[in-house]
């Protein structure tokens, strides 16, 4: 009798609890996960399952899930739950995002999650989360040591100049997440590349002089200090070495392993000698910039040349960055920002003498666009993104790379040189088909529409592009965002449209705003654009793929009811840096030039069109205006969640057909759509989630690559 | 409802992708089609409409018809304007049929201006004539939502508080040219308790969404002509009155129709008061309706007396708006599999093929989906019950 009663009571309590708690407690593969919302999307559940598997295996993962399906909260709730369940396995979550608004979004979600935790467990929250957004709220590092969650920008981990200050003490048992990681290879490359102009050298010159003065002043007042430094340098960088071996520090790619075991060479040990050394190096660089034709050479070639010309050896060059840091510390210089030029040069010296592969040096006497104006630049350009990210993969047990657009998934492990345990792409479950990708290949006159180099100046192509925009402006409500492949191309086309009178016709339907290279102008245009969308006038924003708008700005709901991508956004292929990189990729990773270029173009195209869909209640047209998109090699590189809706009937359309399809789509989407319509299909309650056939359906959402 | 809406010829229609509708069913419930969602909404509306609600029976409705360039679009046959005006004629008739003590006014907007086609009035004739005339007008320029709402507001704001003040916008364009901030106007409309509803002819426009949400109206976008008609007919029913609107007793006159024969020597032909401001019709008539208060003569009802301001109606008018207050109760929905009995619809005698059947709670007769909607939307009484009433 009594056990029965007990059971009954338990049941009762269970029912009461279940009714009280609206928010979800999930069982993900045996792990209790608190989820601070009433409903969950099926793909979120699937995403968490994959994530859990990755953490269990202590490996790396590549996960693609469309934006607006709650990646962030899925990541946070699972990893936090994992941390709570296995505090010894995972000690810290390092969440890297790209921009400040994105970081703020993460913090907001995190706050919700933490509130929910405190409410549920009624215990005091012992979790400490820390967000580093900008320099003005940059914090000192001892706190990071204790924080359980750190949210900051990529650069804190990838850029060797900053990573050293902020991230080197992160524990090995951390989970690192790179969100919006579709551009991570470029971030890696940028963080390792150095561009030196004449201006840099001039500023460096001033730096050297300041250093010299400071040294001579200190020598008079506090000579002991310099002597102390000298003896420390004789000892070498043993401390750093010990620290790295005992696993306290994240290794810095600028500080290669070998030099840690050696003492700083005699030639740059005293402060004066070092400054003299830097002077010599500077003079050499100045001489190199005095050229009239383009020079491209490898790092060993550069080192040989510098040895022949000014007798600078490879070894002291490698110690440059470390030596300068030590000097700046000894001289107790507070404002390091003033010395950015000389720091840059010292980094360059170390990198160029450390890595014989993966880098190239290109010296250009002028910019391609302005061949008459002398503006010599030395590009020390990294071609291998894996160099910068290697320490991250090597050190942390799990690194998750995730974004809305990571297709084709197999290319990221190749160019970043790591082995993931899970690679998966998730689709968006939808109660109604809210995205409508269309490939427009022809005008009504049957002339092919393409931004191909040979035909891009063609009058008929430009006119057809204009007609497309004009027709769309008449049927799409509120905002349209149009992307061009480059600023120059946009300028040419818009000028041509003006002459043909197309712009005037468009302006009857909508206002036109243009993104420019000037950030202030662009944000002004954006603001006005949004206002016009808000008050019913309607607007078109003309912008550029790879520009500020295409990367960071979301066009939710009425701010972007259609995105038009004019042409395929190939990167400017005439650039020597790019050519060198392509060559390197071909030789080192066996990635064909064309494959990489197409991959790069398609990820940017996907980014651009993805701007319009930021959630399940949102809807928008995605128009690819170039017949080349219809080819399988392009189409196949789009993310799965877009490809799924790209039927054979929406390839190579004419403008008229596009208008018909678009009209139909927009009418369908304008029909009332409430939350109940989503429930059970693309939005689940706990009970629905637990049903057998739903679990089966969920299993289909993730596609392993 | 007497004839099927004329279908466009196949070659005139747009690109239809009939196979897509089929495809979505095949892939299971993962992708419910928009039609399905729409149908559910329709059912819901029927069952929702039957609470104890107060209805604003005395309606003052301004219909704003967009006459801008976009009305020349031919996706409705022969073009949007002609189609809209034709439907409007039908709407006006239906409106007065169901709301005899209400008034309507028509505003058109084009070329950034708003123009009153007809003033608020309770007589359909004038409106119908104006609508017929408007077919020949040209559609130019952009519409102005602000200006047209403002024109409507200027009249509506003087209406007494017990009346239901409504604006219905038929909006074809996707842009509006406004002289001032429309959000200020929306606030004013809200304060004046004017309900604005919008029927969009092309797509969902943000400002309309806000406008209708703030003022408590509805916003729908048409799919095709028959859907357009359906949406328009929704506005025939009086909307529930807001709880804050005041109730008041209204004086009404029920004039008797005096028929004077030519043989009667005393009868003198006289002018009707309604002829004062209209020209063309014969002026002198024998007999008519005489206002019980001031004895002014009118030839048609319902009307507001021009002399003493009394609302003059006939008893059948009031009776016709009666069913709004006592609507037919919703039928019980049961899935077809669970239904045991003869599988034909009581009303149309067709076979029951839909997913569910509907049973009248009073007479236990069974109906199909289409008939269920027809009975609740149009007939307002159950044919099954009527039959049993008669036989008993």
TrEMBL record, chain A:
<dbReference type="GO" id="GO:0006366">
    <property type="term" value="P:transcription by RNA polymerase II"/>
</dbReference>
<dbReference type="Pfam" id="PF13307">
    <property type="entry name" value="Helicase_C_2"/>
</dbReference>
<keyword id="KW-0067">ATP-binding</keyword>
<dbReference type="GO" id="GO:0005524">
    <property type="term" value="F:ATP binding"/>
</dbReference>
<keyword id="KW-0804">Transcription</keyword>
<keyword id="KW-0227">DNA damage</keyword>
<feature type="domain" description="Helicase ATP-binding">
    <location>
        <begin position="30"/>
        <end position="230"/>
    </location>
</feature>
<feature type="coiled-coil region">
    <location>
        <begin position="201"/>
        <end position="243"/>
    </location>
</feature>
<keyword id="KW-0004">4Fe-4S</keyword>
<keyword id="KW-0378">Hydrolase</keyword>
<comment type="similarity">
    <text>Belongs to the helicase family. RAD3/XPD subfamily.</text>
</comment>
<keyword id="KW-0411">Iron-sulfur</keyword>
<dbReference type="Pfam" id="PF06733">
    <property type="entry name" value="DEAD_2"/>
</dbReference>
<dbReference type="GO" id="GO:0035315">
    <property type="term" value="P:hair cell differentiation"/>
</dbReference>
<keyword id="KW-0175">Coiled coil</keyword>
<dbReference type="GO" id="GO:0005634">
    <property type="term" value="C:nucleus"/>
</dbReference>
<dbReference type="GO" id="GO:0043139">
    <property type="term" value="F:5'-3' DNA helicase activity"/>
</dbReference>
<keyword id="KW-0805">Transcription regulation</keyword>
<dbReference type="Pfam" id="PF06777">
    <property type="entry name" value="HBB"/>
</dbReference>
<dbReference type="InterPro" id="IPR010614">
    <property type="entry name" value="RAD3-like_helicase_DEAD"/>
</dbReference>
<dbReference type="InterPro" id="IPR006554">
    <property type="entry name" value="Helicase-like_DEXD_c2"/>
</dbReference>
<dbReference type="InterPro" id="IPR010643">
    <property type="entry name" value="HBB"/>
</dbReference>
TrEMBL record, chain B:
<dbReference type="InterPro" id="IPR036465">
    <property type="entry name" value="vWFA_dom_sf"/>
</dbReference>
<keyword id="KW-0597">Phosphoprotein</keyword>
<keyword id="KW-0234">DNA repair</keyword>
<dbReference type="InterPro" id="IPR004595">
    <property type="entry name" value="TFIIH_C1-like_dom"/>
</dbReference>
<keyword id="KW-0863">Zinc-finger</keyword>
<dbReference type="InterPro" id="IPR007198">
    <property type="entry name" value="Ssl1-like"/>
</dbReference>
<comment type="similarity">
    <text>Belongs to the GTF2H2 family.</text>
</comment>
<keyword id="KW-0479">Metal-binding</keyword>
<dbReference type="GO" id="GO:0006357">
    <property type="term" value="P:regulation of transcription by RNA polymerase II"/>
</dbReference>
<dbReference type="InterPro" id="IPR013083">
    <property type="entry name" value="Znf_RING/FYVE/PHD"/>
</dbReference>
<dbReference type="GO" id="GO:0006351">
    <property type="term" value="P:DNA-templated transcription"/>
</dbReference>
<protein>
    <recommendedName>
        <fullName>General transcription factor IIH subunit</fullName>
    </recommendedName>
</protein>
<keyword id="KW-0862">Zinc</keyword>
<dbReference type="GO" id="GO:0000439">
    <property type="term" value="C:transcription factor TFIIH core complex"/>
</dbReference>
<keyword id="KW-0805">Transcription regulation</keyword>
<dbReference type="InterPro" id="IPR002035">
    <property type="entry name" value="VWF_A"/>
</dbReference>
<keyword id="KW-0539">Nucleus</keyword>
<dbReference type="InterPro" id="IPR012170">
    <property type="entry name" value="TFIIH_SSL1/p44"/>
</dbReference>
<feature type="zinc finger region" description="C4-type">
    <location>
        <begin position="291"/>
        <end position="308"/>
    </location>
</feature>
<dbReference type="GO" id="GO:0016607">
    <property type="term" value="C:nuclear speck"/>
</dbReference>
<dbReference type="GO" id="GO:0006289">
    <property type="term" value="P:nucleotide-excision repair"/>
</dbReference>
<dbReference type="InterPro" id="IPR046349">
    <property type="entry name" value="C1-like_sf"/>
</dbReference>
């Amino acid at each position: 009798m009594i056990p029965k009663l007990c059971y009954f009571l338990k049941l009762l309590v269970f029912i009461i609890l279940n009714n009280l708690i609206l928010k979800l407690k999930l069982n993900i593969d045996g792990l209790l996960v608190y989820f601070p919302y009433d409903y969950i999307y099926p793909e979120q559940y699937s995403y968490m399952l994959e994530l859990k598997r990755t953490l269990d295996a202590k490996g790396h993962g590549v996960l693609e899930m469309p934006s607006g399906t709650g990646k962030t909260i899925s990541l946070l709730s699972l990893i936090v739950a994992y941390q709570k369940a296995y505090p010894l396995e995972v000690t810290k979550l390092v969440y890297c995002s790209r921009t400040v608004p994105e970081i703020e979004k993460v913090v907001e979600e995190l706050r919700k999650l933490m509130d929910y935790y405190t409410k549920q467990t009624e215990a005091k929250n012992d979790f400490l989360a820390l967000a580093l957004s900008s320099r003005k709220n940059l914090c000192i590092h001892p706190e990071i040591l204790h924080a359980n969650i750190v949210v900051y920008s990529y650069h804190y981990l990838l850029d060797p100049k900053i990573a050293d200050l902020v991230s080197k003490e992160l524990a090995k048992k951390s989970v690192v997440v790179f969100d919006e990681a579709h551009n991570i290879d470029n971030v890696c490359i940028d963080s390792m590349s150095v561009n030196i102009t004449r201006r840099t050298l001039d500023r460096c010159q001033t730096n050297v002089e300041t250093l010299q003065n400071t040294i001579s002043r200190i020598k008079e007042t506090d000579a002991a200090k310099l002597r102390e430094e000298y003896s420390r340098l004789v000892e070498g960088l043993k401390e750093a070495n010990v620290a790295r071996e005992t696993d306290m520090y994240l290794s810095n790619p600028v500080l290669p392993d070998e030099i840690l075991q050696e003492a700083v060479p005699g030639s740059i040990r005293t402060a004066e000698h070092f400054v003299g050394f830097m002077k010599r190096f500077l003079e050499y660089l100045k001489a190199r910039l005095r050229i009239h034709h383009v020079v491209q050479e490898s790092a060993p070639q550069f080192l040989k040349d510098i040895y022949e010309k000014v007798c600078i050896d490879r070894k002291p060059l490698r110690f440059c960055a470390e030596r300068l840091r030590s000097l700046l510390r000894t001289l107790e210089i507070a404002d390091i920002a003033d010395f950015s030029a000389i720091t840059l040069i010292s980094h360059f010296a170390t990198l160029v003498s450390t890595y014989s592969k993966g880098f190239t040096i290109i010296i250009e006497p002028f910019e391609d666009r302005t061949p008459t104006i002398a503006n010599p630049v030395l590009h020390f350009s990294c071609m291998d993104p894996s160099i910068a990210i290697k320490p991250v993969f090597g050190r942390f047990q799990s690194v998750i790379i995730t974004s809305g657009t990571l297709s084709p998934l197999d290319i990221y492990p190749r160019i970043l040189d790591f082995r993931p345990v899970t690679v998966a792409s998730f689709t968006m479950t939808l109660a109604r088909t809210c995205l409508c990708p269309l490939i427009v290949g022809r005008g009504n006159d049957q002339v092919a529409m393409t931004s191909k180099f040979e035909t891009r100046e063609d009058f008929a192509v430009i006119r057809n592009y204009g007609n497309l925009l004009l027709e769309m402006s008449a049927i799409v409500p509120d905002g349209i965002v149009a992307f061009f492949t480059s600023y120059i191309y946009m300028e040419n086309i818009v000028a041509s449209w003006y002459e043909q009178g197309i712009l005037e016709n468009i302006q009857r339907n909508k206002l036109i705003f243009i993104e420019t290279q000037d950030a202030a102008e662009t944000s002004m245009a954006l603001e006005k654009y949004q206002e016009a969308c808000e008050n019913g006038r309607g607007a078109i924003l003309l912008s550029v793929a790879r520009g500020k708008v295409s990367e960071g700005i979301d066009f939710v709901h009425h701010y972007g009811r259609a995105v038009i991508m004019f042409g395929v956004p190939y990167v400017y292929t005439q650039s020597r840096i790019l050519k060198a990189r392509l060559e390197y990729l071909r030789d080192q990773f066996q990635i064909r030039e064309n494959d990489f270029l197409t991959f790069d173009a398609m990820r940017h195209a996907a980014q651009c069109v993805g701007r319009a869909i930021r959630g399940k209640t949102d809807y928008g047209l995605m128009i690819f205006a170039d017949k080349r998109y219809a080819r399988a090699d392009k189409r196949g590189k789009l993310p799965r969640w877009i490809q799924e809706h790209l039927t054979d009937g929406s390839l190579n359309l004419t403008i008229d057909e596009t208008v018909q399809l678009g009209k139909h789509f927009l009418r369908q989407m304008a029909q009332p759509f409430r939350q109940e319509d989503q429930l059970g299909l693309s939005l689940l309650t706990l009970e629905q989630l637990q049903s057998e056939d739903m679990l089966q359906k969920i299993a289909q959402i993730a596609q392993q690559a | 409802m007497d004839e099927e809406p004329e279908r466009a010829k196949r070659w005139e229609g747009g690109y239809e992708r009939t196979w897509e509708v089929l495809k979505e069913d095949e892939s299971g419930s993962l992708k419910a089609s928009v039609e399905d969602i729409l149908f559910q909404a329709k059912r819901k509306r029927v069952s929702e409409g039957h609470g104890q609600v107060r209805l604003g029976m005395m309606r003052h409705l301004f219909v704003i018809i967009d006459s801008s360039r976009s009305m020349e679009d031919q996706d409705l046959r022969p073009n949007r304007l002609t189609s809209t005006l034709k439907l409007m004629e039908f709407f006006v008739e239906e409106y007065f049929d169901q709301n005899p003590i209400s008034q309507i006014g028509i505003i058109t907007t084009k070329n950034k201006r708003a123009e009153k086609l007809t003033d608020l009035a309770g007589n359909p004739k004038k409106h119908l004539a104006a609508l017929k005339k408007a077919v020949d007008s040209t559609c130019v320029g952009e519409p102005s939502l602000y200006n047209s709402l403002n024109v409507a507001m200027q009249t509506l704001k003087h209406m007494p508080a017990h009346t239901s003040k409504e604006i219905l916008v038929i909006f074809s364009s996707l842009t509006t040219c406004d002289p001032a901030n429309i959000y200020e106007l929306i606030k004013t409309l809200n304060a004046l308790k004017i309900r604005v509803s919008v029927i969009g002819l092309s797509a969902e426009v943000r400002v309309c969404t806000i406008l209708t949400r703030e003022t408590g109206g509805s916003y729908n976008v048409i799919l095709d002509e028959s859907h357009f008609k359906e949406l328009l007919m929704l506005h025939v029913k009086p909307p529930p009155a807001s709880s804050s609107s005041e109730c008041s007793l209204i004086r009404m006159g029920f004039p008797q129709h005096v028929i004077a024969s030519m043989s009667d020597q005393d009868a003198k032909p006289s002018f009707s008061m309604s002829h004062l401001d209209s020209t063309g019709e014969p002026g002198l008539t024998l007999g008519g309706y005489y206002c019980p208060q001031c004895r002014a003569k009118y030839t048609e009802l319902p009307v507001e007396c021009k002399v003493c301001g009394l609302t003059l109606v006939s008893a059948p008018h009031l009776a016709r708006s009666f069913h709004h207050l006592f609507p037919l109760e919703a039928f019980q929905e049961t899935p077809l599999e669970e239904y045991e009995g003869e599988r034909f619809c009581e009303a149309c005698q067709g076979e029951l093929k839909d997913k569910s059947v509907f049973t009248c709670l009073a007479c236990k007769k069974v109906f199909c989906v289409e008939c269920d909607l027809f009975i609740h939307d149009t007939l307002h009484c159950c044919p099954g019950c009527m039959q049993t009433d008669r036989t008993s």
